[in-house]
Amino acid sequence: GAVVSQHPSWVICKSGTSVKIECRSLDFQATTMFWYRQFPKQSLMLMATSNEGSKATYEQGVEKDKFLINHASLTLSTLTVTSAHPEDSSFYICSARDLRQGTYNSPLHFGNGTRLTVT
Amino acid sequence: AQSVTQLGSHVSVSEGALVLLRCNYSSSVPPYLFWYVQYPNQGLQLLLKYTTGATLVKGINGFEAEFKKSETSFHLTKPSAHMSDAAEYFCAVSDRGDSSYKLIFGSGTRLLVRP
User: Fold this and answer.
1) What is the distance between the alpha carbons of residues B66 and B55, in angstroms, rounded to a whole number?
2) Region of residue A102 (left: phi > 0; alpha: psi -120 to 50; beta: else)
3) A78-111 confidence digits (pLDDT tens)
4) Contact residues, chain A, for B45 at CB < 8 Å
5) How close B41 gets to chain A, by Cα (Å)?
6) A76 φ, ψ to 5°?
């Protein structure tokens, strides 16, 4: 079945530095990838929709200059947290849609998430 | 805007007992409906989905859910809980008219299974 690989699984960085998270679809092509953020014991909040070949669409309240999203190919999307601060510490999860399943009936395939800790 | 409500942030059942996790959506036009499970520090795994057709949907691991339009509900059930079912469960919806096909998640329900 379709697999989404997210890397790294966890990262610790110092305040003020930038961190890049990769999301790859391993055996399918995804025109659209979604980035979610999850705080402890809370639900997933959609941050942005990443479209291959075009600019990402950010949800209201998400700083596009802080959370840079690039969808370089049909199998790779990256999220860069710029000038990270402790309040950016969270669990970030990507997901991708499998084009082979054609219509909207296709479910999202999720990566295993990245736990970011900013010290 | 579409929203989804999961009643009960925690549900505790004994092993072998019935599992019932509640989910209600807000829109007048039924959305696409999904249930996902999340184990600690992992992504989400699809349990089942409803898009069209039969309102009783069977998923993996013995779970099933029934779409009830009159109640705007999509509750998740399993006849007999197993210890391995302990996890966080999320109901999710997506507007049929939303071309971005994004999912909106409920707040989640943590299922605890007592031996």
Assistant:
1) 5
2) left
3) 999 999 999 999 999 999 987 656 555 666 789 9
4) 110
5) 7
6) -140, 130
